Model the fold of this input.
Amino acid sequence: MQFGGAALNMLSRTADNLYWLARYVERAEYLARILEATQRLTALPLAYVGESNEWESAVATAGCAGAFYAVFSEANEENVTDFLAFSSDNPSSIRSCFEAARTNARAVRTALTMEMWDAINGTWLELRRYGNGPTSREELSRFLRWVQESSLRFDGCAYRTMLRNDAYWFTRLGVYLERADNTARILDVKYHMLLPAQEHVGGPLDYFQWAAILRSVSALTSYHWVYRESLRPWHVADLLILKEEMPRSLASCYENIVTNLDRIATAYGRQGPAQRLARGIRTRLQNSRMDDIFQRGLHEFIQSFIADNNRIGATITQQYLT
Done:
């Protein structure tokens, strides 16, 4: 199948490779951020982190609890790190994501700039040198930082070197759909697993866990710039859901998803269900208020959003990628 439109004629399989290349690179960075935040929390004294199992939370946040417990009986540092970072049996591990990203990149080598190919191919070659993974916590920390830097390098190459055409727009769709899902899952798990029921909101346990969540999405400094006060759950949720100025917020992701879908529609000469669905989600986010979200239930709001985000992904695939 080929797309319509006189000016552009990209094969759907090429668009699919570009879309998933971007998603896999974004997902690898997200997993590294989850592991880094979990490592930071578990290094704190027990009085600050409570009785909850942070490694269990990491598996839940990554969205692969079922697959994890099919292999392991206990969520501890060694098992979770291996499964989320290095396991070849986990299709969503950091290793698997970078390998899948490189496979997709190789399939569309001529659609990438030289800098993009060098970034992803170099990452894949460097990853192979890690073997079965770091042998110490310090080495793991360096590895997780390297993963994030590798993702940022690839994304920066795409942003600074690609023509603003359909190839670029499909990579952006992959980035923002993946990022929206990741941010939503981080928020959801925080409310249901990290904070024990007996803890008071605003206590030391709450503060350190919210700080870890904000660091995991590079938002701690931004929080203090926007709100200029100590951490409050409703402010954190507001920042990560409704603030378009925050690059990883749901609102920002959907502003970018709508923009790039509209550019594709203009270039190909027709609108479709993906454009309509994306605009509907953006409008709901723009019309939402944190008081209403908390009153109706943050968990229910996020679960509905994740379902909508998955629906958009499926619609984009059906409309453009098959």
